[in-house]
User: Fold this.
Amino acid sequence: MANNLPLLKGETIELTIESLNHAGEGVGRFHGFTVFVPGALPLEKVTAKVISVQKNYARALLQSISATSPQRIMPVCEQYEPCGGCQLQHLDYAAQLQLKQKTVEDALQRIAGLSVPVLPTLGIEHPWRYRNKAQVPVGQQKNKLVAGFYEQRSHNIVDLKCCHIQHPANDTVVHAVRNILQALGITAYKENEHRGLVRHILARTSFATGETLVVIVTNGANLPKKEQICHALREAIPNLCGIVQNVNTKRGNTILGKEDITLWGRPWLCERLGDLEFHLSARSFFQVNPSQTVRLYGKALEYAALSGKETVFDLYCGIGTISLFLARNAAKVIGVESLAAAVDDARKNASINEITNTTFHVGAAEKIVPLLYKEGYRADVVVVDPPRKGCDQALLETISKMSPQRIVYLSCNPATLARDIRFLAENGFNPVEAQPVDMFPQTSHVETVVLITRVGK
Ligand code: SAH
Assistant:
C-alpha cells in the first residue's frame, strides 16, 4: 500500500498551498495527495518535512517559504509557535474573518448538502485582549511549577508569559497562583501517574466591573496552607472578588470536578451584557468574549423575531443569558440546562433583572423537552446553543414534532451544526441564513447563529 503513496515520512517536499482547513492549517497537494502544513497560507510556495502519512493525507512541518502570501503578518505573541492556544496570528484579521465564513459555508455544503447563505463574519474592532476566562493546566518541569496552554496536539505545557487574547488580569492570576504555589511547595498534578495536587488554574475577569474570580482545581479536597495561599493571592491580584477550590479527583481531560469550596470572598462573578446583569458561579458556562456576545445575542434576537406573544424555549441555557434577552420580547421563556449550579444562577439572574416570565429546568435537554412535550408544552420559537457535540437526536426529533415557527441555532462547532441542520432540513424545516460571529479572534474557532424556519404554515 505505502508504495503507492507519492511521499514518505521524513521526506522534504515542495508544494503550493491552496486553502486553509477548519483548523487554520495550510492545505496543499503533492502529486495529487493532500498534505496539511500548519502555519502555511494559501498561494504560498513552501518546503515542508513530512511527519506522518495516513491513508488519505499527510502532515508536514513548515520549513521555509519561497513565495509569501500578502495576507501573512508577524504574530504578536512571542510564544505563538509553541503554544497551541491560537492558530491564526500569522493571518491578517480580515482574512481570518473570511476564513471563518468559508468554514461555515463548507461545513453546510459538505455535511448538510445545503447551500445556505452565510453572511460575512461579524468581526471585533480590536481583536486582542478580549477573553474574560483563562483556564490553564499546571505542571512541573524540572523543579519548577509551570502553568500555561498546551502545545498543539500534545499535553506539554508552555509556561505562560503574556497571553495577548486574555484580559490582562487573567495573566496576573496565572502568574500569581503559579508563583505562590511554587513558593509554598505545593505540588502539581501529574497526569500520567494521577498523583500531585494542583491540576488547573481558572481565572475569570469581568469586563464590566473589573473584578476577578480565581478557581484552583485540585486532585483531592485537602489543600495545604490555604490561609497563606489566600493571603498572598489577595496581595497579588487587585480587584479579587473570590477564591474557590474545585475538587476533581477523576482521571481524564475534564477540567472541573463537582465539588466547590469557597476559600475566600464570594464564589461568583458579576458581569454585564448590554443592560442586563449576570452573576456566574465558578463552574457555570459564560461566553468568553462579552462585547461580541452582545452582537451574537442581538442577531439571535433578530432571528427570533418576537412580537411579545410567543412561548420560547431556550435550550442549553447556561446561566440564562439568552433567556433574559428573549424574555423582554416574549410572553414566556422556558430555559433548560443540565448543570444545576448554572440553573441556580439563571433563576437568580432573572430576579436581579426583575424578569418574571422565565422558568428554568435542570436536566438534559433531550430528556426534559420530550417530557415537557408530553405534558402539552409547545414553543413558537426554539433557541438551541449546545456544546461542541451538538444536539442529541432525541431532542431534534421532539423539536420537529413540536413544530415551532422558528428555530435559532447558536453553535460553536460548524460540523455538528451542519449535521443537525441536515436532520432539521429533512424534517420540515428550512435553514434560511447563517451569521458567523468572531468570538475567538486569532484562533480557528467559529461561532455561528442560524435562522431555521418551519416549511409551510
Ligand atoms: N446559552 C448559554 C450557554 C451555552 S454553552 C450561553 O450563551 O451562555 C452550553 C450549555 O449547555 C452549558 O451551560 C452546558 O452546561 C449545557 N449542556 C451541556 N449538555 C447539555 C444537555 N444535554 N442538555 C442541556 N444542557 C446541556
Observations:
- The pocket of S-adenosyl-L-homocysteine is lined by residues 285-287, 316-318, 321-322, 336-339, 342, 364-366, 385-387 (CB under 6 Å).
- The domain at 12-67 is CATH 2.40.50.140 (OB fold (Dihydrolipoamide Acetyltransferase, E2P)).
- The mean pLDDT is 96.
